[in-house]
## 1
Amino acid sequence: MVKHHLSDLRGCFADTAAYEAALAQDDPLVYTVASVTPADGDGDLHCGVGLIRPGKIGGEYFMTRGHLHSWRAAAEFYIGLSGEGVMLLEEEATGESRLVELRPNSVVYVPGHTAHRTINVGRTPLTYLGVYPAKAGHDYAAIAKNNFRCVAVERNGKPEMIERNDLLASKGT
Amino acid sequence: MVKHHLSDLRGCFADTAAYEAALAQDDPLVYTVASVTPADGDGDLHCGVGLIRPGKIGGEYFMTRGHLHSWRAAAEFYIGLSGEGVMLLEEEATGESRLVELRPNSVVYVPGHTAHRTINVGRTPLTYLGVYPAKAGHDYAAIAKNNFRCVAVERNGKPEMIERNDLLASKGT
């Protein structure tokens, strides 16, 4: 199982001052991913079991770093197990973004060529599965460089997608 | 959604006399599969949502017809949602068979080149997801011709895998 603490998420949250202030206090576990990788051939599949703890940094919810697949055509099915989540999907070529609910016993389809980040918008741990082609591979570098164009923030008690730049402007940074 | 009634399962249950007797009384719905097929390219995935009702015919539990993938190398992840199930897996080349539990929030990996059948061993509906490469395809013909080598029957209140021929011998057929 891979554990991701707050210190592993530098550059993910829009509000860097809030991030550094939180990190100065504590370095909590934000999420874990356990991978199930039975075989690596063509036609094989892998599965990841994710858990994201509840929390917020500067108005943004606790979330994964997010990734593209190294094999860009590779899709992924996410299946909610418990808790309340959303997924932020961003088409690589166009930047077109959408926020999709991830709930227990329901699926979210992430098409190929789409950056995806999983976000816990509830007050309990969010757990989920992701099933993807064994040959997909994970590309974290593109996200580390450009992050996502949009962020999920709470508005009137519900998650809403807004432009990262609009969030920064509203904070006067 | 595709509905499979008892009359669609001719040839699946070992005890053909029990099957015909049950069918003469009623033709109940045994299982349904709803497919989620967002795209069909390389790297894309499809998903099936299955529901198998509880029941038995001649000592065997209600089950799916079972299939191999047309693209034999294609694997599949099954995810239990509710109820108590098992999966019967039979390697095509060797006939090697095993029975694996399918429970809520847990996964079963079906490797390529492996015939697989889902079986409801509980008293409530069994629901589950199957995620597979979009290009997998379903081959039902091989199963229709040879069926599975083994069957799942209840022994001391638990599902147990035995040779089909042993079940037939025990019934004197």
## 2
Amino acid sequence: MALASGMRLSARALLRPWSPLRGKALGCTEPAAGGGNGARLFGSQRVLVEPDPAAGVAVMKFKNPPVNSLSLELLTEFVISLEKLENDKTFRGVILSSDCPGVFSAGLDLTEMCGRNPAHYAEYWKAVQELWLRLYLSNLVLIAAISGACPAGGCLISLTCDYRVLADNPKCLIGLNETLLGIIAPFWFRDTLVNTIGHRAAERALQLGLLFPPAEALQVGMVDQVVPEDQVQSTALSVMAQWMAIPGEEHREGQQLWVLVGEQSPLPPQPDAPGETRKF
Amino acid sequence: MALASGMRLSARALLRPWSPLRGKALGCTEPAAGGGNGARLFGSQRVLVEPDPAAGVAVMKFKNPPVNSLSLELLTEFVISLEKLENDKTFRGVILSSDCPGVFSAGLDLTEMCGRNPAHYAEYWKAVQELWLRLYLSNLVLIAAISGACPAGGCLISLTCDYRVLADNPKCLIGLNETLLGIIAPFWFRDTLVNTIGHRAAERALQLGLLFPPAEALQVGMVDQVVPEDQVQSTALSVMAQWMAIPGEEHREGQQLWVLVGEQSPLPPQPDAPGETRKF
Amino acid sequence: MALASGMRLSARALLRPWSPLRGKALGCTEPAAGGGNGARLFGSQRVLVEPDPAAGVAVMKFKNPPVNSLSLELLTEFVISLEKLENDKTFRGVILSSDCPGVFSAGLDLTEMCGRNPAHYAEYWKAVQELWLRLYLSNLVLIAAISGACPAGGCLISLTCDYRVLADNPKCLIGLNETLLGIIAPFWFRDTLVNTIGHRAAERALQLGLLFPPAEALQVGMVDQVVPEDQVQSTALSVMAQWMAIPGEEHREGQQLWVLVGEQSPLPPQPDAPGETRKF
């Protein structure tokens, strides 16, 4: 979730039918075994999901060793798991983290981007866009618990979240460093960064491919909090509790409604029947 | 007044004929008695206007006890009083403050927003939009002298001003806290906040409905200055004097002109005949 | 060069055929004498160009005593010199500075803007726009080495650069102070400033015509570094070396490509053949 309409380009303009990828299970997506009480671990090989239905919160952990490269399979499993959580009204918040020590995610999988055919490039890149769209437009509260390196696509994922907690470890560098790798960050990577740290800081960071150590990341606004490594998860949970205390649906869909009301209708919000009108 | 064209959505797109409200006197609007020399106090029951023609400055004080709720009557009287000042070339600046101790304004009047019929909602909400448009597009220099709590719609009013002075009192909380109340801030509340404190800070403040105490409000950029409570008014006046020293009309209408010139005409500004071309 | 697509208005919308000015040599433009090895000083009467082909960097110095007013001749010579450097693949970076002690540039030449005929105004103002477009959309890395006063148009030029180094001298004031002079800064001056220091700071700076001394300029983000006066040039060179270490063309044209790819084509970047697709 994010203040999406502040983006310079409409996220919705990017959304295209994605039937080839959406319809079938790529990789080895494995639905949760058992009962449907929501309390069992479900997910897939590459994305662990640890639900806490009582709190309304789930923790999703990337598990694609050694560095959580965003392979097509990981992206697919991630989007499916996220969609399940979105559809399950039990959950209002998700914490994103990593099951691989020392890294949050190394970003896009370069092996998906060269030596393949155009159809594969198209499929892969659509999956990257889909991930970003799902996260940035999510109704869930998203918090990134970052205990490892967080470059490029890993950083993008964290930027789509509502709050970022970073481990105070000099190895926990974060940034969109595509330029240094000879890769060009798409405009929506850039816009997401601009929304987070402002135009000028984003300009410099993108052009030089800067990776920020924790103190600098905090100062420039790339993350919201830096804590000792062993407190990243607990901090994320306690920040999430703060969000969960916000009443109703307002913190999720509030910003979108008034675009409609303001443009099309003179009607004010009707607090007594929020469920009907607040859907995006 | 504000750098209006930097807004993400055109304020003008919102401006609609507003004849039902504009034409008639709602509430008990009471024009200034007497002479027309501009020196007499005029205004209405709910908005006191204290003009200082020599300085070219007027002080407007909300007076709708106990908490300066923005009722339809207050909004109407406020807009009418502001229009009078706009039309009176004697005045170039207005200081907005409160006649009710402990509060600048508590914001929108919730009793106008539930238990009424759609026509009333439409009328009320148009009045809120009108207030915002009048303030944010005003040719007057506007300074908010805030000596009390300043939540929600009260905060919005202050954000439309050119400068905000806040009393250094822990009770003087300021912010768009609609989310906490189960109300959704319209997109133009959001955009006004984004323009003031930036995208990321606005995102977080809106989603959590944050109310900032003075020191934090200053740090995040929600206000421009925090001073002891008994110096709020005098500080506002001395800041206003700084603005009044700016020559001509430039500080008011300057930003708009070049939108026209740049897009439609190759002509440069003609400093020797500013009055003709600078009208918005 | 700058993150141009982040601008609120398309720079390209401003670009018009400019044949009357481009085709002929205004002023006394004097091409470099001699050999074509790129190592000789070339330029013109009003813009000195000191190339360092080995480093891929050239230094351009305004030389229009006493205050480097941006006369039509200076603008023309500057654009021509810049175009030469753009076309010469030897050069990837340019440092902008001044040959006149105590001033970077005093900005637009007021004598070009009054007492002339409309055709002259049009020609002059197009030249100003052309300069801004050339700089802000340049493929070259641009660094401003500012050892003197930098008001108005001088400030605009520095804002189009990728990095600004300012001398730590109280006389080195920098800002868009047009308002104080009774002149209105065009919207693209404003947008360039907003992109650099953010909306709220730009709003206040423009409305009051603020000129920032070095420490304040650094704090507000108007410049990136403040150094002792005798280290301005060397600092600019060492920052430039940092930029020159970025591989390939990514730091120049990277941002633009994905606008095309994302909107028109599902193809990902092809790192092994960047030259073909990365042209703007």
## 3
Amino acid sequence: MNANLVKDLPEARPEEWLDTLIDAENVTVERIVSHGHTSPATGWYDQPRHEWVTVLTGRGTVAFEDGEEVTLGPGDHLTIPAHRRHRVAWTAPGEPTVWLAVHYD
Amino acid sequence: MNANLVKDLPEARPEEWLDTLIDAENVTVERIVSHGHTSPATGWYDQPRHEWVTVLTGRGTVAFEDGEEVTLGPGDHLTIPAHRRHRVAWTAPGEPTVWLAVHYD
């Protein structure tokens, strides 16, 4: 990845792109680039750490197992507590969606 | 602060605006809104933790004590190792500059 989070984005491929920006003992920061991707329909993320997420460009929907859905556009942000089961239900088709995620204890 | 990092920004005031988004044991995430602010000319930040910083909107220059200067625009990001002395030498006048900073061990 180059030194900019939103320029010269990688092209669409079957999987999302994930780059690790910080990999420290207690915190991981990732950039995820989606091109219309969603989580596998059969699975929920159940993460041991809290996750704070924002969208830098594009648009995406996080769905929770309890039925809540939150759609995030540029600058919107959301904290997902550890073990709150969730998935990415939708990302904007035809344009890249860039997520920034901070995983922490 | 509302739920969006870059909309409905606070107005200019003599000091920068600082909002803490995550305040966990090992990581702090902050949003800083500058309106042409710079660090006090006499002081360097000398921080005990590493800092990863990106600019969401606007433009700003981080200067290091060793003479290096890095200007960041939207999506540019930079890691400042702990105790690397630095200051904000410039932010764009006439528009808000929104920084996102992750402090970690």
## 4
Amino acid sequence: MSEESTVVTHPFLDLAPLGAAQFASIEDRVARLLRTEQDVVIMQGEALLPLEGAIRSTAGPGTTALNVITGPYGQTFGDWLRDCGATVIDLAVPFHTAVTAAQIAAAFEEHPAIDFVSLVHAEAATGNTNPVAEIGEVVRRQGALFYLDAVASVGAEPVLPDAWGVDLCVIGAQKAMGGPAGVSAVSVSERAWARMAANPKAPRRSYLSLLDWKERWIDGGRKALLHAPAQLEMLALEACVERIEADGLDAVMGRHRAAAAATRAGARALGGGLEPYVHEDREAAPAATTLRAPSGVAASELVTRALSCDPALPLAAGGGALAKEMIRVNHYGVDATLGAVRASLAALGAALREKGIAADVESALRAAEDAWR
Amino acid sequence: MSEESTVVTHPFLDLAPLGAAQFASIEDRVARLLRTEQDVVIMQGEALLPLEGAIRSTAGPGTTALNVITGPYGQTFGDWLRDCGATVIDLAVPFHTAVTAAQIAAAFEEHPAIDFVSLVHAEAATGNTNPVAEIGEVVRRQGALFYLDAVASVGAEPVLPDAWGVDLCVIGAQKAMGGPAGVSAVSVSERAWARMAANPKAPRRSYLSLLDWKERWIDGGRKALLHAPAQLEMLALEACVERIEADGLDAVMGRHRAAAAATRAGARALGGGLEPYVHEDREAAPAATTLRAPSGVAASELVTRALSCDPALPLAAGGGALAKEMIRVNHYGVDATLGAVRASLAALGAALREKGIAADVESALRAAEDAWR
Amino acid sequence: MSEESTVVTHPFLDLAPLGAAQFASIEDRVARLLRTEQDVVIMQGEALLPLEGAIRSTAGPGTTALNVITGPYGQTFGDWLRDCGATVIDLAVPFHTAVTAAQIAAAFEEHPAIDFVSLVHAEAATGNTNPVAEIGEVVRRQGALFYLDAVASVGAEPVLPDAWGVDLCVIGAQKAMGGPAGVSAVSVSERAWARMAANPKAPRRSYLSLLDWKERWIDGGRKALLHAPAQLEMLALEACVERIEADGLDAVMGRHRAAAAATRAGARALGGGLEPYVHEDREAAPAATTLRAPSGVAASELVTRALSCDPALPLAAGGGALAKEMIRVNHYGVDATLGAVRASLAALGAALREKGIAADVESALRAAEDAWR
Amino acid sequence: MSEESTVVTHPFLDLAPLGAAQFASIEDRVARLLRTEQDVVIMQGEALLPLEGAIRSTAGPGTTALNVITGPYGQTFGDWLRDCGATVIDLAVPFHTAVTAAQIAAAFEEHPAIDFVSLVHAEAATGNTNPVAEIGEVVRRQGALFYLDAVASVGAEPVLPDAWGVDLCVIGAQKAMGGPAGVSAVSVSERAWARMAANPKAPRRSYLSLLDWKERWIDGGRKALLHAPAQLEMLALEACVERIEADGLDAVMGRHRAAAAATRAGARALGGGLEPYVHEDREAAPAATTLRAPSGVAASELVTRALSCDPALPLAAGGGALAKEMIRVNHYGVDATLGAVRASLAALGAALREKGIAADVESALRAAEDAWR
């Protein structure tokens, strides 16, 4: 073999294309993770792709959508829905709380025409999580289509489309699953497929189209892919599901739940005015905890100080206007550890003290440790 | 380190996210490969994503588009253009030939309203390549926007958006570049950006949107990505451009040109009724050669026979109706070798003989070898 | 997460160390591939490491070794054996043939003191393969320890240490298994362990030591590794065994056997003086075929010509003095295809013709195709 | 391309072999990292391979070796030296300190025959680092050969074979470099090569041999490798050196130095009887800090408790007899962060309290933060 002929050798090049059979088997593996009998379509892009594709496929001028806003993604979904011509009823709840099934029921009562509900399960950006099981019961009773963004919940807390009556459940692997961001998945119920088929404006022959996958991939027996897949990301998705299976989904979710409990308990004990942004524990997302900065101190400044000695900490300020008041602790994936929580609390305590605010790191850590167990 | 804590170790997991700086540097590297000063946007999906996004961003009811059809992709572009409300003038040329600059000029003469031209540079599916430099001169003279699909040409033959006046030049790495299929790129001229900005129906806040990348990524100084990128595919794209740089782009293109010349010469010498589908050498794509099956023999059957003993050969039957008459030899990427050409010719010769058709493999190989040099 | 903090992101960095449990499971998988109940030790180096380690561990001044030389590795083994102080009886057979069980039996008769037999199963460098099953019967009857180098046979033909009575069976993944070269394995019988334990000069506390692995790894229940493993190579070994399991070992071996048969038949039909170096088909290795260059033509020159237009062909001249007369066709791993055989035969035919020697490529290919089936 | 033909696709399989040119360029890159003009040989195994190979190549019955023991590796080197027939003078210093240049000078005075000095630069297992620059001056003045194990120092503190007069400097990438463990390197001075060439017992034609690499690789102009390399590990080594170059070696070393300072200051402030095992700061290794457990408490028990809630923490008990009294904080590679130090101190504080021992975590963290800056 002439050694001179290959100048650059790289394991990411010259791979055999990912075959349809392996692609289908990865879809099946994701379906098992979601305990669903629905069709699971893996789309070749970030989770925004199936999120947008699912709305554009199902919503149209005849749609009356109840759009629940518990964070920035809900606002995006409303934009898409209006763009499709749907009548949109926004149900915005303060970011420090979750929506309740009762609020959903009340909205149905007020707007009987609602035939579509869009909801973000958990929002990493605001740190809340919504009671999807209870909401699903209401939505199903009303016969509306139920669309769920589970990107920030899958792997951190139960995501059960079938048990909950979710018709369009979108996931990505980049948060609690500890996997790639470049491919994502959506489970689609029979009802959702029917709604799309009846929607003349549903994208077809488009990168956004779910129906293309239905008609050319699923209905064809999953023999021929629509286009060459993002093969490395697909292999990474397979690997991360394999790891979750090996660890046990319950153990993985348990680590996230413990990290959230520890962060919240620690922040409360730290004092200095820092407190959980989401008031109720049961409304707090297991994947990421948001904290409210003490009044008079910019959250972004605290975060900058905390990261200055340790840029790898999973801390960020809130986005946009929230940068003033919200600190995010992203204890998901590899950071779903007590160590990441401890280091984050200690760094926040030090940042508070630099601003002249007393902070009881000792108590914070003890509280975090107690809560972790 | 507790060894029991990690059940599944995999190099594709738990990577640090790809930062904005590295993302931007990969864009710059692609721009250098295309010798362009235009903005290069890397989109997080297969090449269909920027292909569709570029059309939906620029075309609208006020657009008069000349859509050149030299293969299946041209037909898809026409669908998208019509979908956008554009007036579409289809200029279809037989798949065994290329379009000429004169044909383009004549179309402009006949339809002076044309302000958009869409063209596929080379089509792997039909094996032709079009004279983009000459066509570009005509299009520029007319002031129309020039949209080019260079997915099957980049790496195999020159692709020079600036020199040729291409306003939207889309590439993917999965063919002659020997790279990943999951991310792709488009270079965008100032004129194209202006057209999009003036287009009220250009996708915004959408996975299909180019303007989102312009406004939130480029205009912001490429500091913050719109969403987490497909990081493994991005690294693979970087690696494949690095390899092309190390080998030399001219050398890489030379291998593809030689492979095409050898395949065509070989097929002619093989006899038995097999002949190049594209008549003129200069209209034949360097990345893939199409052959016409002898009359009375289905191309798909010949391919099936040829692959039966060697499923790794880069052979395929034409798509759809072409399956009857067209054989594709995909001598791109790792298959841009004389060995792949020889093995393909020998396999086709054997398949012909199995059908009772004489084939002169000896002459075919000699002709291929002569043409390769 | 500060994006500026990570300048270089690479999937090969910052991996969690490979744990003992996964290491052990890879050993078990290799054992299943070899259908052996013996201990399998994976050593962290190229196959030369266990090859050398096994000899230095078992041989000493009291050893009388029958060293069978059917290629260059046999010569190396003799050097090691002498270096250990063993009495070495070299049994060299011409490289164009294999050793026979009768020759082994005769050697035992002549030298009843023989208590160790070293043999290369198949030699890629000379292209022969030896009848290990029959030889094993003789060796076992005589009670000698049986050491086998199966690096160039595993994956291409059956390797069955238990059925054949092999005491030390060394494999590497870099040939027919299509895997990595950086780690390798040896299966060790109880008798071999006992021999080592009784050998005062067996390496201990040494990178060459097998006893270290026995005493500190195996006897300790495989809980703690001796040192951090070559983790990427281990994962690659796991992947290649997984692929063989998925394809089926029989299918993988079948491809290699077919490639050898096709190459030999093709070379014979090619004429021009080229002929199989190993006379008897049953003595020819499935992993690689050696050919004798026509008299008056240097093999190395033919190979250079053949590679000039196609450096990726799996061709090489023989090593050392054999460079004059021997051509090697390495149709193993990804090159165990009819396409690689066809391309190699065509390239050799063209090279012969350039030297003014008639070669019937047409017949060569037909013969190869017939033999492949 | 038949999709059914590939059952398992994996980026680690079917790679083109790593060529000699790329191998040589990786050696050159390692040489630049060490600022050395000496030959750098990359050996295909864990660092134990060049460590052992270098001793067996240079030491023999005529050697008088001063073997400095500051941890377990020094003991291993003494075993190898004796095994080679060398006269060994062991200079053992307590693990809580470093050896001094004066002690080395005194040893030379007492034993003028010393012509070889073996030293571990820094020992992760005991946490000390030795003043190699000063010692090098003494050794050079005496004309002895200087052998240095820099595996646990390279990347964490300066390693300068040329400036310090080191003749055999062995490194591995698995600690502060954050790279692979499966390949390693040794720089060899001209004097060292000469010593080996004159040593009749230096390994030759052996996996342990350095002379094989000298004679067959370096002297041949680095054209042909001795055997197929561990290609994935080589690529990982290249990637980790590239990352260090991008970050800046000084910055990488700075992080390790800061982590050590913070850990030591934090442990002192924690109280409860925990204290740095190595008394003097300047004798403490930047890569890893060892701590002495309070009397009456087993270090291994504290570590087990600390890891129980957070198995990913970089904590370990000392090896062997040290398990009772020594705790290791391995703040190297990805763990060279303030966050890892904070989490480790907090975990140790919690473990102490569980044993009923007061620990001032608050003060520990403050001290660590002050020391980090």
